[in-house]
Specification:
By secondary structure, this protein is α+β, with helices and mostly antiparallel strands. The chain has 6 helices and 6 strands; from the N terminus they run H-H-E-H-H-E-E-E-E-H-E-H. Strand 2 and strand 3 form a beta hairpin. The protein starts with a helix and ends with a helix. The structure holds zinc ion (ZN). This is Ferric uptake regulation protein.
Length: 135
């Protein structure tokens, strides 16, 4: 997996560094993480890493198009899913889940008005307790 990530970094024109590899590995677990969570996770294996390094690395990865970021509940979140989708913030669980809905037509509508859409982030705040019962 490390070699795949390294190739992906190179393909985007980024140098392969241990920090970038380690952060990509966490992000690729397909969850939604804030900078603090990634920092806490990384500290276990790399005690010398700083929070600002984590944030700088995340922003570099985002600029390269490898991760998506958005704001929810007053925090910035990062994820591996870069395709437009809806993020549902479950207030009761303090957790974010991905929802596949047709946001493509929304993007096309906006583009038809001459706006060059760079990114689209929709956050829905919800009570997911009922969802949990269904599972
Ligand atoms: Zn998401």
């Amino acid at each position: 997996m490390s070699e795949d990530i390294a190739n992906e970094l190179r393909r985007k024109g980024l140098k392969v560094t241990p920090q970038r590899l380690a952060i990509m590995k966490i992000i690729l677990r397909n969850g939604h993480y804030n900078g603090e969570q990634i920092y806490e996770e990384l500290k276990k294996t790399e005690p010398s890493i700083s929070l600002s390094t984590v944030y700088n690395t995340l922003e570099t990865l985002k600029d390269a198009g490898l991760v998506n970021s958005f704001e929810a509940n007053g925090m910035k979140w990062y994820e591996a899913k870069v395709e437009p989708h809806v993020n549902v913030f479950c207030i009761d669980m303090n957790e974010i889940i991905d929802m596949e809905v047709n946001v493509g037509s929304m993007v096309r509508d906006i583009q038809e008005r001459g706006i060059d859409v760079k990114s689209l982030n929709i956050v829905v705040y919800a009570d997911c307790s009922k969802l949990k019962v269904q599972k």
